[in-house]
């Protein structure tokens, strides 16, 4: 799902403002999933398949956040 968003962002050449908006959305989604994972751990009721799936999604979103942040950060040659 979010992989498609990053691919389209790259293909369409989104503006910096649009990328910042997408970045904020991804960060909110990452925080939401992180809260869910924490709640599952605190509950003690473990659905291992769901937990594994959520962690994969969380990692994918984290990678996409890093990619967007790299696109937004200017290259500075030292």
Separation of the first and last Cα atoms: 37 Å
Helix content: over 70%
Oligomeric state, counting identical vs distinct chains? single chain
Structural class: mainly alpha
Strand count, sense and closure of the main sheet? none
Our estimate of the beta-strand percent is: under 5%
Unreliable runs, pLDDT <50, ≥5 residues? none
Explain what this protein looks like in three dimensions.
With 78 residues, the protein is an all-alpha fold. It has a domain at 25-71. 82% of the residues lie in helices and 0% in strands. It is built from three helices and no strands. The chain has helices at residues 2-12, 16-43, 48-72. α2 runs antiparallel to α3. The chain is elongated, with a radius of gyration of 15 Å. The mean pLDDT is 84.
Which structural traits does this protein have?
82% helix, 78 residues, single chain, mainly alpha
Compact summary:
The chain has three helices and no strands. With 78 residues, it is an all-alpha fold. The chain is elongated, with a radius of gyration of 15 Å.
Write the layout of secondary structure elements.
Blueprint: H1 2-12, H2 16-43, H3 48-72
